[in-house]
Amino acid sequence: MSKELSVRVDGHVGVLEIRRPPDNHFSLDVLTGLADASENLAADGCRALVWCSEGKNFCAGMDFARDGVGQSPVHTLSALYSQALRLYAVPVPVVAAVQGAAVGGGLGLACAADFRVASPATRFHANFGLLGLHQGFGLSVSLPRAVGAQKAAEMLYTADRVTGQSAHAAGLADRLVEDGRVREGALEWAHRIASRAPLALRSMKATVRADLLAALPAALDREIVEQTRLMATRDHEAGVTSSLARSTPAFTGR
What we know:
Largest sheet: 6 strands, mixed
Oligomer: single chain
Distance between the termini: 44 Å
Number of domains: 1
Strand order of the largest sheet: 1-2-3-4-6-9
Helix content: 40-55%
CATH topology: 2-enoyl-CoA Hydratase, Chain A, domain 1
Number of helices: 10
Order of helices and strands: EEHEHEEHEEHHEHEHHHH
CATH superfamily: 2-enoyl-CoA Hydratase, Chain A, domain 1
Shape: globular
């Protein structure tokens, strides 16, 4: 479709690859393209989808240094999260092939999929506390749904990296495969799902995800408010500066 997103069909499985290596930071255009292509593939008869990325890491969220949020964070975040809502609502099962790191909003993107395939080298990182920010991309509801309220709180409050093995034990990674086989494992699983009755798959997904989709709009609205408020703080400035410098931030609570 573009230099930053490729789409192909493998039997009844659609494969969508983000191409912004090595970290595959998303932008509004990338998320919009991913949502458009996912909906189109489902409308054209694909029974399952694989979301994957080119390069070292699955997705490192938004690149604040490169893309920023402009003069109106509310407008920018609202636009991004309207696409996030579309991704959560894709009508066919989605398997995310999570190689390397899924960080911040990239963790949110992984959690928008129905399933996640990881390897021992995978890292899931809710790094918002290191950036002086509230969590976003619907993680307020999708992360506790995947790992439970206590584990979600631990991941958010500590901002510690979670290994592939720990993520699998917690239920965040649904399949753990050997390093280098993440995409292969995701494709195999998607083909297994796609071999089942397609109308039943859509019906079951709509039922299983009904509570999540009902809770997401309010959660995303709250995330936008909190992120916008915290972006104006010195702690956020310190967090972003330290992240770019790969140093430890010194937060002051201001």
